[in-house]
């Protein structure tokens, strides 16, 4: 057993460059894992902020869709009508989620845009505090946060 430790020590001492490169590579990998975990955590909080504020009792999606992030789900009009007719259903509202470039002043930014379909009433707890109402179909209202 002592011979194995001695051999390992000699190998590390004679190959210092390889040892330092290995330590550096492991450190960078660990840092990148922490960095992307933090980015993902912050992004997911922002993506679900609007749907959480809607306070919906039930979300209906296509079979096989487990969440709304980077997914598409489409319900035919007749299915929405069938859901609307169920006892206890007050309102059925389509929800839109797209990734698209957004022009803010002169800057073009990439954004995940979520909201209610055109023509539906806005969520009760989302109020316009500054700016103007939507004038055209290609406009959206962005939250301040």
Describe this structure in words.
The chain has 145 residues and is α+β, with helices and mostly antiparallel strands. It has helices at 2-14, 16-47, 49-53, 77-84; strands at residues 95-104, 107-116. Strands 1-2 form a two-stranded antiparallel sheet. β1 and β2 (107-116) form a beta hairpin. It is elongated, with a radius of gyration of 26 Å. The N and C termini lie far apart (60 Å). The model has no long low-confidence stretch (mean pLDDT 77).
What's this model, at a glance?
Helix content is 40%, strand content 14%.
How many beta-strand runs? 2
What is the alpha-carbon Rg in Å?
26 Å
Strand content: 5-15%
**Cα-to-Cα separation, first versus last residue:** 60 Å
Q: Order of strands across the biggest sheet?
A: 1-2
Which parts are unreliable, with pLDDT below 50 for 5 consecutive residues or more?
none
C-alpha geometry: elongated
How is the biggest beta sheet arranged?
2 strands, antiparallel
Structural class: alpha+beta
| Quaternary structure of the protein | single chain
Give me the number of helical elements.
4
- Helicity, as a percent range: 40-55%
SSE order: HHHHEE
Instruction: Provide mean pLDDT, rounded.
Output: 77
Kindly list the characteristics that best describe this protein.
two-stranded antiparallel sheet, 40% helix, 2 strands, elongated, 145 residues
Helix-strand blueprint:
Blueprint: H1 2-14, H2 16-47, H3 49-53, H4 77-84, E1 95-104, E2 107-116
Antiparallel strand pairs: 1-2
């Amino acid at each position: 057993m002592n011979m194995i430790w001695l051999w390992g020590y000699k190998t590390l001492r004679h190959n210092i460059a390889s040892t330092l490169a290995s330590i550096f590579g492991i450190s960078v990998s660990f840092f990148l894992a922490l960095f992307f975990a933090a980015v993902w955590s912050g992004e997911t909080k922002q993506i679900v902020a609007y749907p959480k504020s809607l306070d919906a009792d039930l979300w209906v999606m296509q079979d096989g869709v487990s969440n709304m992030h980077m997914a598409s789900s489409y319900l035919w009009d007749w299915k929405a009508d069938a859901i609307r007719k169920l006892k206890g259903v007050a309102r059925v509202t389509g929800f839109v989620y797209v990734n698209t470039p957004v022009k803010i002043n002169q800057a073009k930014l990439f954004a995940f845009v979520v909201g209610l379909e055109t023509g539906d009433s806005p969520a009760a707890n989302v109020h316009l505090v500054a700016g103007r109402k939507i004038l055209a179909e290609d406009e959206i209202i962005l939250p301040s946060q």
